[in-house]
């Protein structure tokens, strides 16, 4: 794409170039009530105050709906639909464009600039959406294969259904938290000696806390009970994407998951990044995912539509010593199924979606060791250690470890990125 230039000074390494303009929920010292903003460079553009001071005077379409920017979630804005998201984002780009058609609104208006532009470091970030339901999928083919090899061997690594449908399970929306929220190590039932003839679990803090490098996608258009969403209509139901760390307690999971799947091992915390990157901002980076040699059933057949995105992803670990190591670097192209396919499959039997519902991609891993998106893969379930900066080692996460996921598309100066998705592991509560 031809790079756009803003009148605002934006570092070329910023994830929040004028090509992006992700939406989020902030509060500030000036306005302590949570409200809508977009990120631009090192600033948040306060859309609540912007609307109150006639910032949208030249965009007639949004004027009857300006109250959405005073809400403490993005749900009301999301519900306006993708055509409205598109025109609002394009209008804000025009306002921020150097010598653009609306330069008098902000570029030449010192007073309003002072009111609506707040440094990101002075903003408190909040969960961007009110999440009614959350579903986690398992669309990372390389991750699914690697984990399958660990537990079932290479001949049976993938279950027979894997390439026919997006495998998923219903997660717990109540424990989805915004980046920066500490994650408490969970207690749970753990089988300390899986090889013992008599299986007797004990209750203790998890010893195998793990990360899961994922993407999340929010829904902006509801569907009705009993009515499937067609694969060609599915993109209009998608609002935008976030980074996601779906923390896992692997030892709790190993004991509890038969026969109904994960439960307490997955519901103690899921961290998402605070800024929602709109689907339209990602569209220039649309690409194909992993080729599926299994012919897709008609309700999943996208007919060569590019529904994946060339997002470069990375995971860093900072220990209590202050030293930081990169654990993984991979691409969002390493998914077998797309979010439209996940939505189409999820609604196939008539399950309805609501505005704000969240879907997770599943752990994203590449083929090489440096591309593995969780410690379960990297350490072969604790058999080998990962070497960190300064000589430290890890099999799984320790208390005080801080995990940071980042992701971005494009080139310096025109990056469309997500910022960071950060969480610190805190000690488990002492059971009475």
UniProtKB/TrEMBL annotation:
SUPFAM superfamilies: FAH, Fumarylacetoacetate hydrolase, FAH, N-terminal domain. One of its GO terms (molecular function) is metal ion binding. Coiled coil: none annotated. Its EC number is 3.7.1.2. Ca(2+) binds at residues 136, 212, 214, 246. Substrate binds at residues 138, 152, 253, 257, 363. Residues 136-407 form the Fumarylacetoacetase-like C-terminal domain. Mg(2+) binds at residues 246, 266, 270. It is an enzyme of class 3 (hydrolase). It comes from the Eukaryota. It catalyses: 4-fumarylacetoacetate + H2O = acetoacetate + fumarate + H(+). Keywords: Calcium, Hydrolase, Magnesium, Metal-binding, Phenylalanine catabolism, Tyrosine catabolism. Pathway: Amino-acid degradation; L-phenylalanine degradation; acetoacetate and fumarate from L-phenylalanine: step 6/6. Its cofactor is Mg(2+); Ca(2+). Residues 19-128 form the Fumarylacetoacetase N-terminal domain. Belongs to the FAH family. NCBIfam families: fum_ac_acetase. This is Fumarylacetoacetase. It comes from Hortaea werneckii EXF-2000.
